[in-house]
């Protein structure tokens, strides 16, 4: 079984209309029947083509195949009794804010103050061994956000999850001990329920790579054993945490910490590929934390680092943050009858989506077709190179703002039913459109049918 990244070019759809259906059909020409797309992003686009990067899995064999990532169910209404927002900062794109070690957490905590519920993902709030996510946050893996916005799943809040922990059979016992101690710390400090800690030998192999756009991605091998474990202990857990080594050139550690935040985090992209696969196959919350490759790398002193990376610099296992998040992750529901329960969060309950400017992936495309307002933040620069304005948004559906302060203002305006532009000046003039109709044969065209006509 292999997880890999593929880059391809797809001709642009006319007017960029109905992109989900168009892209789904287009991908069938680029993948064999036994290869399934798991993660999708458009890294660059113009009126001629879309530069796409797709994470895909091959060799599933006897394992259950997940539904297509492009399956889409349009929402029939918006539930306006609550105001719920989705905060997305995609993993591996070098986001200026939220692209490192949980440095999107202040943004999440700020946006959460104007929401009933903030739905976000580990890349935003997991700062290695630190996790300070808002109390009203739903912590879900990236593919779960995609499926939520596509209308195919619902999220049920839980009191607490049983978290299965799978750790690498590391050659240096120091790191195995540290991982076990992290689990014990979670059990003793925030009451984690952990039915099993399983040491996997040989471990799943994750290798980090960069795509031509500069995104972090990679390859995953040996996933079969992990999936068999998940099947074997299916009744014992509600979420899964995996801690293992990610293969990168040794100099990447120093390069990353000494880059002052300019180097795209090389670990997150391949982690997202792994967790997208697990959550899609088993409908469970999942998260991954990297293990240091050796004691010498762990003990290297890179001095005082960029504040956005400091959580990584002071962490040992990077595991504590995801354990805290998974403890509260909502359950993933696929049964349509269960999803209709008022306590379950579905796409009908999503009030807006907040993204870095230029990001086009399944969440953005789903929001476009669901009629969900999208707020794009210019200040959160990244390697994506798309003009969101060319997509066929409904009037007042896309708001491009300079920073997250402004994003909060737009969210508050949407929440209160105000046109965001109404609180700015100059206020545009009210225009009057004149329409001239020539009605021919009005008597014949608009007469109510007679009772005799109706009976016929």
Search tags:
456 residues; alpha/beta; 10-stranded mixed beta sheet; 6-stranded parallel beta sheet; 16 helices; 20 strands; 29% helix; 23% strand; disordered C terminus
Describe the fold and architecture.
It is a single chain. With 456 residues, the protein is α/β, with parallel strands linked by helices. Among the domains are: 2-58, no CATH class; 113-333, no CATH class. The protein contains 16 helices and 20 strands. It has helices spanning 19-27, 105-112, 122-125, 142-150, 173-189, 223-232, 251-257, 268-282, 295-298, 310-313, 320-327, 336-339, 362-370, 404-416, 442-446, 451-455; strands spanning 2-11, 35-45, 49-58, 84-87, 117-120, 126-127, 130-131, 137-139, 154-156, 163-168, 197-200, 205-210, 216-221, 239-247, 286-291, 331-333, 350-356, 360-361, 374-377, 398-401. The strands form 4 sheets. Strands 1, 2, 3, 10, 11, 12, 13, 14, 15 and 18 form a 10-stranded mixed sheet that branches. Strands 8-5-4-17-19-20 form a 6-stranded parallel sheet, sandwiched between helices. It has a two-stranded antiparallel ribbon with strand order 6-7. Helix 4 packs parallel to helix 13 (362-370). The protein is globular. Mean pLDDT is 94; it is low at 451-456.
Distance between the termini: 65 Å
- Strand element count: 20
Strand content: 15-25%
Structural class determined from secondary elements:
alpha/beta
Radius of gyration: 24 Å
Largest sheet: 10 strands, mixed
In DSSP terms (H or I, runs of 4 or more residues), the helix count works out at 16
Shape: globular
Mean pLDDT: 94
**Which consecutive residue ranges, at least 5 long each, have pLDDT under 50?**
451-456
Q: Tell me roughly what share of residues is in helical segments.
A: 25-40%
């Amino acid at each position: 079984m292999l997880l890999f990244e593929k880059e391809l070019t797809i001709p642009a759809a006319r007017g960029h209309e109905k992109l989900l259906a168009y892209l789904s059909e287009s991908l069938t020409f680029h993948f064999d029947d036994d290869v399934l797309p798991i993660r999708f992003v458009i890294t660059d686009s113009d009126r001629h083509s879309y530069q796409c990067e797709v994470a895909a899995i091959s060799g599933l064999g006897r394992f259950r195949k997940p539904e297509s990532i492009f399956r889409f169910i349009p929402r029939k209404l918006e539930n306006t009794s609550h105001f719920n927002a989705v905060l997305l900062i995609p993993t591996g794109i070098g986001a200026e804010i939220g692209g490192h070690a949980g440095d999107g957490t202040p943004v999440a905590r700020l946006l959460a103050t104007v929401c009933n519920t903030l739905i976000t993902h580990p890349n935003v709030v997991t700062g290695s061994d630190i996790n300070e996510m808002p109390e009203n946050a739903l912590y879900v893996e990236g593919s779960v956000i995609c499926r939520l916005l596509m209308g195919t799943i619902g999220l049920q809040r839980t009191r607490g999850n049983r978290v299965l922990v799978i750790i690498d059979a590391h050659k240096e016992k120091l790191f195995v001990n540290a991982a076990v101690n992290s689990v014990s710390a979670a059990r003793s400090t925030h009451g984690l329920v952990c039915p099993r800690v399983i040491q996997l030998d040989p471990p799943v192999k994750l290798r980090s790579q960069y795509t031509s756009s500069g995104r972090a991605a990679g390859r995953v091998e040996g996933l079969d054993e992990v999936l068999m474990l998940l099947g074997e202990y299916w009744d014992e857990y509600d979420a899964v945490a995996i801690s293992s080594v990610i293969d990168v050139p040794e100099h990447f550690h120093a390069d990353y910490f000494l880059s002052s935040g300019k180097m795209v985090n090389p670990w997150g992209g391949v982690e997202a590929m792994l967790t997208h696969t697990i959550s899609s196959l088993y409908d469970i919350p999942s998260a991954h934390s990297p293990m240091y490759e050796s004691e010498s790398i762990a003990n290297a002193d890179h001095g005082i680092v960029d504040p956005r990376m400091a959580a990584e610099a002071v962490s040992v296992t990077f595991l504590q943050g995801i354990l805290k998040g998974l403890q509260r992750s909502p359950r993933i529901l696929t049964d349509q009858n269960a999803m209709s329960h008022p306590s379950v969060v579905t796409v009908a309950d999503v009030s807006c989506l907040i993204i870095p400017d230029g990001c086009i992936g399944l969440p953005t495309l789903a929001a476009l077709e669901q009629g969900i307002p999208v707020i794009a933040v210019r200040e959160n620069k990244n390697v994506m190179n798309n003009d969101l304005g060319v997509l066929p948004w409904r009037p007042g559906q896309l708001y491009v703002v300079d920073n997250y302060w402004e994003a909060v203002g737009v969210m508050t305006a949407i929440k209160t039913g105000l046109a965001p532009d109404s609180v700015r000046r100059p206020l545009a003039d009210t225009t009057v459109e004149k329409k001239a109709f020539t009605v021919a044969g009005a008597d014949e065209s608009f007469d109510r049918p007679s009772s005799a006509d109706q009976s016929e």
